[in-house]
Amino acid sequence: MPRLKQLPKSEADPDVAQPLYTMMFGERDPVAEPGTATGTPGDWWTVFANSPDTLKDAARTFAYYRSPERKIDPVIRELGQTWAGWATGSQFVFSQHCKSLRGLGVSQEKITALPVWQTAACFDPRERAALAYADRLVRHNGRVPDALFGELKAHFSDEEILEFTYITCTYFMHAVMARALRLEFDDRADPVVEVPAPEGGSNTI
């Protein structure tokens, strides 16, 4: 279960949350009858509804990155978002954006290879530059060598780079929040735990 309460439709803000509930769940109460079209429980929406302003701001970012006004190639954008999920260990963000990549016509070969993009031959130089930059944003907290940034600028305009940076960092945030609040597919126990020694076994290495 999520670590914060979920708001049923009857308690959700009528101006912000309820229209979004209707968009995502139809006439169902998503707490009583959970589930979205992509197979997630849908509790991201019902938890974010605790703060209508936060939900409204988050929903605005979805409209922002999907806007036809964006200059960044949608496939490049989704590579950054999907890598943010993988690198952060968010099953939810990674899984959802694999589906988005597939919806944009990206090959299954590339989707499968994404976790090992560094050694995968299926990515072209433009995609590899974007993925390397996304990795520096997410796993190195924005420490980007000049040589890598020069490679990035060889493929993308300043506006495209700014959009890609903003969107990738936004999805890094979403990945972190999903894990911290145990939302959607990130409602799972930490896999890194002590494994008990056998009965009568040694307690030392």
Note down, in words, how this protein is organized.
With 205 residues, the chain is mostly helical. It folds into 2 domains: 9-64, no CATH class; 72-186, AhpD-like. The protein has helices at residues 17-25, 43-48, 52-66, 74-88, 91-103, 108-113, 125-139, 146-155, 158-181. The two termini are 36 Å apart.
Keywords:
mainly alpha; 9 helices; globular; AhpD-like; 205 residues; 2 domains
Mean pLDDT: 96
Percent range for β-strand residues: under 5%
> Roughly how many Å apart are the termini?
36 Å
The percent of residues in helical segments reads: 55-70%
> Could you say which overall geometry the principal axes of the C-alpha atoms support?
globular
CATH architecture of the largest domain: Up-down Bundle
Furnish the topology, listing elements before pairings.
Elements: H1 17-25, H2 43-48, H3 52-66, H4 74-88, H5 91-103, H6 108-113, H7 125-139, H8 146-155, H9 158-181
Helix pairs in contact: 4-5, 4-7, 4-9, 5-9, 7-8, 7-9
Offer a quick outline of the entry.
The chain has 205 residues and is mostly helical. The chain is built from nine helices and no strands. The two termini are 36 Å apart.
